[in-house]
Specification:
This protein is α/β, with parallel strands linked by helices. 48% of the residues lie in helices and 15% in strands.
Length: 263
């Protein structure tokens, strides 16, 4: 079942809000945040806001406690555990940052379900402050509506290239991509005909897909809430595995026929 790779966005796909906004709001720093957003890239704003939050006397432990209160979308945790139990290879591609993502995943008991977390790097500096850096250089030159610090399409292309390098023409991996935001449009364009994309209905990526259906090669299955996400995701996984099982059985039967015939 590692033939199925399931890639999750994080904000508004696993948790039911934007983790950056959540932390800023919880520490009462929204006014400064709103003033900075029009003046610099979002990723740079968040690095600046972390310095401000620490300057107000907040610690890494305080930030951690705020993150642990972030609401996870109901049914999504069981969906992730089920997909992992079925042997799928689960990965995260998120424009949040590593500390935010890992803290919430670990608190939710699903961090070990993921083989990769692709997100903006973060680290604690010598003064004990959380710093946030861009995932990609600000000149990744993508023509799609990606933020300057992260092109998720490039991340998906790297995953596809790695699969091709390992398995060559025998590469049978199928990808299922789940997301909600504008930045999830670019990776959706990278998916192949045998793949699936699950945009969250009535969110920015849903609108972009509806306006550009002809550009999407993958099969589109929208979802509204966690219960629908779980139902559709597990149904797709079951459908893929059923097809693969039939193909394997057919190959085995054909092999038996050839053996019998040769005698």
């Amino acid at each position: 079942m590692a033939e199925i790779v399931v890639v999750f966005d994080f904000d508004k796909t696993i948790i039911d809000l934007d983790s950056d906004n959540w932390v800023v709001d919880e520490f009462g720093a929204s006014d400064m945040f709103d003033q900075l957003v029009p003046t610099m890239p979002w990723n740079t704003v968040m690095d600046t806001m972390m310095k401000e939050i620490h300057a107000r006397g907040k610690t890494m432990q305080d930030i951690e406690q705020v993150l642990k209160r972030a609401p996870v979308i109901p049914w999504v945790v069981p969906a992730i555990k089920a997909a992992h139990a079925l042997g799928c290879d689960l990965k995260i591609v998120s424009d949040a940052n590593l500390f935010f993502v890992e803290t919430i995943l670990e608190h939710s008991g699903i961090k070990d379900c993921f083989s990769e977390i692709n997100t903006n790097p973060s680290y604690v500096d010598d003064e004990g402050k959380l710093r946030i850096r861009p995932y990609h250089d600000f000149d990744h030159k993508c023509n799609n509506p990606c933020p300057p610090n992260m092109c998720k399409g490039l991340v998906i292309e790297r995953m596809q290239a790695a699969s091709l390098a390992m398995e060559g023409n025998n590469n049978k991996k199928r990808m299922i991509y789940l997301g909600d935001g504008t930045g999830d449009f670019c990776p959706s364009l990278m998916l192949k005909e045998q793949d699936f994309v699950m945009p969250r209905k009535d969110f920015p990526v849903w609108k972009l897909m509806n306006e550009n259906r002809q550009l999407i090669k993958a099969k589109i299955h929208g979802w509204t809430d966690g219960e629908e996400l779980q139902h559709i995701l597990l149904r797709i996984i079951k459908a893929i595995t059923t097809i693969e099982e039939k193909q394997i059985l057919s190959a085995v039967d054909h092999s038996k026929f050839q053996t019998v015939y040769s005698h």
